[in-house]
Amino acid sequence: MARMVSKQRNSRRANEGKGMAVMLTALKHCMNRNGSESEISCLLHFETWGLEEEKLYFHADQLLRGVYSVWLEVWLKFFDRKDLLVVRSEDYFADPVEVYSRVAEWLGLDPSAIDYHARIERLGKAKTPAEAAQAMQAPVDDKLWNEIRQILLRGEREDVLRYEFNSRQAKLAAQGQQEQGVTGNSDGGRPPMSAAIRRELTEFYAPYNQRLAQLLEDPNFIRGWN
Fold this sequence. Notes:
The protein is mostly helical. It has helices spanning 2-33, 39-44, 51-64, 68-75, 89-94, 96-106, 117-125, 129-137, 143-155, 157-174, 195-216.
């Protein structure tokens, strides 16, 4: 059974690799059709360029959504840079509580203020000045904040494990190796992406990643992506 499952996973990865190659070829063909002027249109409106593109759009969308710089440039036409906070999913998976706190702080919210939830509730129920004063002196209740922390840590655990596994596989694939006895993935792990496809994807995304770093004025944002 284990051998059969392994063959199925290898076959699935091979099919994914072929599909990825087809998508990259179709996207490059779309971009080359009318020169540089069509690049953004191909990325944003790929399915409108013809029947072939329309058929491939569902799959090509998996590629297009990773071209973050193009989408960010659209947002920057309507919002100032200071009004946008861009967060790396890797950072969120690594420390969801820290990122949650950073987002709350960026929004002008004090994460620690959540600890006063019960105190505010008691204050709202106070009927006399004495009860209000007593409510304000009551110990801070951190129950709600603790619940939020638990949800953040528990809810993303599977994604964290998958991210860690994929990161290891990417490094091993670059060295022509494959992790054996994989743990931490619900389906037992999948074979790494072929070196050829990984190289094509890296080359495809590289200029867009560099552009993203420029837009964010943060070269460190794309660390580990290329």
